[in-house]
Amino acid sequence: MGSPEENRMIIAGGGAAGMMAAITAARAGAGVVLIEPNDKLGRKLYITGKGRCNVTNHCSLEEFMANVPRNGKFLYSAVSRFLPQDTWEFFEQLGVPLKTERGNRVFPVSDRSADIVDALFYELRRLRVPVVQDRVEHVLIERGQAVGVRARQSGDLRGSGVILATGGASYPRTGSTGDGYRLAAEAGHTVVPPRGSLVPLESDDPCCGQMQGLSLRNVELTVKDRKGKRIYRELGELLFTHFGLSGPLVLSASAHMDFSANSYTAHIDLKPALSEEKLDARLLRDLQERANQNFSNLLGGLVPHSMIPVIALRCGIPGETKARDVRREERRRLLETLKDFSLPLTGPRPVEEAIVTSGGVKVGEVNPATMESKLVKDLYFAGELLDTDGYTGGFNLQIAWATGHAAGVAAAGRWKERQE
Predict the structure, then answer these.
(1) Residue 172: in which H helix or E strand, if any?
(2) pLDDT-above-90 percentage for the chain
């Protein structure tokens, strides 16, 4: 048995996965030290779910796996041993009541991300887990085994193992600067180049800038590739921005797209509740009942105000045209525009603007049951650093909780073995 300083697990990263790993290991009786470069833990958690923190998704294991498009099989073991229901119970036991909303999304009853962060922080404090504000610059490896880290201010910190939970490359202002990729590569791991997943999308269509700030609800978004193959379709909400599109539908769609190998077009059905026949009947009725009104006024009953000139231009019908003068073929163009408002998509926004990153440590080099490296003994990975990610709706945080829990359990077990 080594010195007291060496009888501890060193966890790099104080986000969701890192704090879960620290709490899990400490509850199991292991010595733990948590290293985080920010002055506060859980910086990224504060901004998730628009400040409300979408903690998990209240779904079955099978439903969860269906919402992980990348390397879901790797996660099966970890998630099956720490299910969304376990996450629910974990936080309610820490005194944070939760609720389920549309799409089985789970939030604190208070709608405050701070309550989730505070619960984790106070549990770490109750367990007397020391938190060191520092940045890990190297993992110390001796004879194929992780024996500590070298931190920028603290120097060498030795331990009985290392858990890397440093996050991806999204939202660097929260501390996710991609350090973990370099640390993993230095340890001999393959790092799949990170790119944005759940990220806004750019379009060069000028109408996006014209409608900047317009949020559309209850629309259907379909994304097709350059061959016309549908790769995504869903009902929900999206937002026009100066660069293109954002909002829940767009973020989810982005997880299905790879602009390095394909090109895509967004097709927005502005009236998904109406079939073409019913919509055509409504348009005909409106045109007859409001025959003396300008076409632009008639559009006011169909689309938001900032969209009126865009729709009129797309249809090729001047806004001052009287409703009675709209011809049958023009009515058809209006119907087609309302049912299929299409936009070319030119690429994703920078990875720094992504909610999560795709890419990271190659999962084939990590034990899926323990999150331990297959290349370096006593080196573990958790959270966004791994090459796996899910759709919006709480699935990515569940990945963080589950992989953090798996790493914490395994690391604590190894720590106990050394004490005997």
Answers:
(1) none
(2) 82
